[in-house]
Input
Amino acid sequence: MKKFVICLLLVVFFATGTYLGCMVLISIDRFPPNEKVRAELVHQGELLIGAIEEYHSVHSVYPADLLDLDLPARVQIVHPIYGPWKYVPYEDGTGFRIKLGDYGKHLIELHWDSDSRNWYVDT
Output
Protein backbone atom coordinates (compact mmCIF):
# COMPACT_ATOMS: atom_id res chain seq x y z
CA MET A 1 0.00 0.00 0.00
CA LYS A 2 1.33 3.41 -0.93
CA LYS A 3 0.19 6.52 0.84
CA PHE A 4 0.87 9.98 -0.44
CA VAL A 5 0.47 13.08 1.70
CA ILE A 6 0.15 16.49 0.13
CA CYS A 7 0.94 19.49 2.30
CA LEU A 8 -0.41 22.88 1.44
CA LEU A 9 0.49 26.01 3.38
CA LEU A 10 -1.91 28.87 3.08
CA VAL A 11 -0.86 32.30 4.22
CA VAL A 12 -3.38 35.11 4.29
CA PHE A 13 -2.23 38.68 4.75
CA PHE A 14 -4.61 41.15 6.30
CA ALA A 15 -4.65 44.91 5.75
CA THR A 16 -2.90 45.39 9.12
CA GLY A 17 0.15 43.47 7.96
CA THR A 18 -0.56 40.49 10.16
CA TYR A 19 -1.01 37.08 8.63
CA LEU A 20 -2.77 33.91 9.41
CA GLY A 21 -1.00 30.69 8.51
CA CYS A 22 -2.90 27.51 8.03
CA MET A 23 -1.56 24.10 7.10
CA VAL A 24 -3.86 21.69 5.32
CA LEU A 25 -2.93 18.02 5.06
CA ILE A 26 -4.64 15.94 2.44
CA SER A 27 -4.05 12.21 2.51
CA ILE A 28 -4.64 10.29 -0.68
CA ASP A 29 -4.47 6.50 -0.66
CA ARG A 30 -3.61 4.91 -3.99
CA PHE A 31 -3.72 1.21 -4.60
CA PRO A 32 -2.81 -0.78 -7.70
CA PRO A 33 -5.75 -2.64 -9.22
CA ASN A 34 -6.45 -6.08 -7.79
CA GLU A 35 -5.94 -9.35 -9.68
CA LYS A 36 -9.53 -9.40 -10.97
CA VAL A 37 -9.20 -5.91 -12.45
CA ARG A 38 -5.81 -6.75 -14.00
CA ALA A 39 -7.29 -9.90 -15.56
CA GLU A 40 -10.19 -7.87 -17.02
CA LEU A 41 -7.78 -5.30 -18.46
CA VAL A 42 -5.72 -8.04 -20.11
CA HIS A 43 -8.95 -9.62 -21.42
CA GLN A 44 -9.95 -6.26 -22.97
CA GLY A 45 -6.48 -6.07 -24.52
CA GLU A 46 -6.84 -9.59 -25.93
CA LEU A 47 -10.16 -8.61 -27.57
CA LEU A 48 -8.47 -5.54 -29.03
CA ILE A 49 -5.53 -7.61 -30.31
CA GLY A 50 -7.99 -10.04 -31.92
CA ALA A 51 -9.76 -7.18 -33.73
CA ILE A 52 -6.42 -5.76 -34.94
CA GLU A 53 -5.28 -9.19 -36.16
CA GLU A 54 -8.63 -9.74 -37.90
CA TYR A 55 -8.28 -6.38 -39.67
CA HIS A 56 -4.78 -7.43 -40.77
CA SER A 57 -6.00 -10.78 -42.13
CA VAL A 58 -8.72 -9.04 -44.21
CA HIS A 59 -6.73 -6.01 -45.44
CA SER A 60 -3.13 -7.39 -45.38
CA VAL A 61 -2.01 -4.30 -43.43
CA TYR A 62 -2.40 -3.23 -39.85
CA PRO A 63 -4.88 -0.41 -39.20
CA ALA A 64 -3.47 3.09 -39.03
CA ASP A 65 -5.67 3.84 -36.01
CA LEU A 66 -7.94 1.98 -33.61
CA LEU A 67 -10.87 3.98 -34.99
CA ASP A 68 -10.42 2.07 -38.27
CA LEU A 69 -11.57 -1.12 -36.53
CA ASP A 70 -15.12 -2.41 -36.43
CA LEU A 71 -15.09 -3.27 -32.73
CA PRO A 72 -17.80 -5.08 -30.81
CA ALA A 73 -19.42 -3.00 -28.06
CA ARG A 74 -17.71 -5.08 -25.36
CA VAL A 75 -14.27 -3.80 -26.40
CA GLN A 76 -13.41 -0.56 -24.63
CA ILE A 77 -10.96 1.65 -26.52
CA VAL A 78 -11.07 4.14 -23.64
CA HIS A 79 -11.17 2.68 -20.15
CA PRO A 80 -13.07 4.92 -17.68
CA ILE A 81 -10.24 4.85 -15.12
CA TYR A 82 -7.04 3.95 -16.97
CA GLY A 83 -7.62 6.02 -20.10
CA PRO A 84 -7.35 5.11 -23.77
CA TRP A 85 -5.52 2.14 -25.22
CA LYS A 86 -2.50 3.43 -27.09
CA TYR A 87 -1.88 1.63 -30.39
CA VAL A 88 1.36 1.98 -32.33
CA PRO A 89 1.76 0.13 -35.64
CA TYR A 90 5.39 -0.55 -36.57
CA GLU A 91 6.68 1.74 -39.32
CA ASP A 92 7.75 -1.23 -41.43
CA GLY A 93 4.20 -2.66 -41.26
CA THR A 94 5.25 -5.95 -39.67
CA GLY A 95 3.44 -5.59 -36.36
CA PHE A 96 2.22 -3.32 -33.60
CA ARG A 97 2.19 -2.66 -29.87
CA ILE A 98 -0.56 -1.62 -27.49
CA LYS A 99 -0.40 -0.02 -24.06
CA LEU A 100 -2.83 0.95 -21.33
CA GLY A 101 -2.36 2.97 -18.16
CA ASP A 102 0.33 5.14 -16.72
CA TYR A 103 2.18 3.82 -13.70
CA GLY A 104 2.70 7.31 -12.29
CA LYS A 105 -1.04 8.01 -12.36
CA HIS A 106 -2.71 4.63 -12.01
CA LEU A 107 -0.10 2.33 -10.42
CA ILE A 108 -0.49 0.00 -13.40
CA GLU A 109 0.83 -0.11 -16.94
CA LEU A 110 0.18 -2.88 -19.47
CA HIS A 111 2.18 -3.43 -22.66
CA TRP A 112 1.86 -6.01 -25.44
CA ASP A 113 3.74 -6.23 -28.71
CA SER A 114 3.33 -8.50 -31.69
CA ASP A 115 7.01 -9.50 -31.73
CA SER A 116 7.07 -11.17 -28.32
CA ARG A 117 3.29 -11.79 -28.16
CA ASN A 118 3.59 -11.46 -24.39
CA TRP A 119 2.00 -9.14 -21.84
CA TYR A 120 4.13 -6.98 -19.58
CA VAL A 121 2.14 -5.78 -16.57
CA ASP A 122 3.79 -3.34 -14.17
CA THR A 123 1.97 -2.85 -10.85
Remarks:
- The chain is about 25% helix and 40% strand.
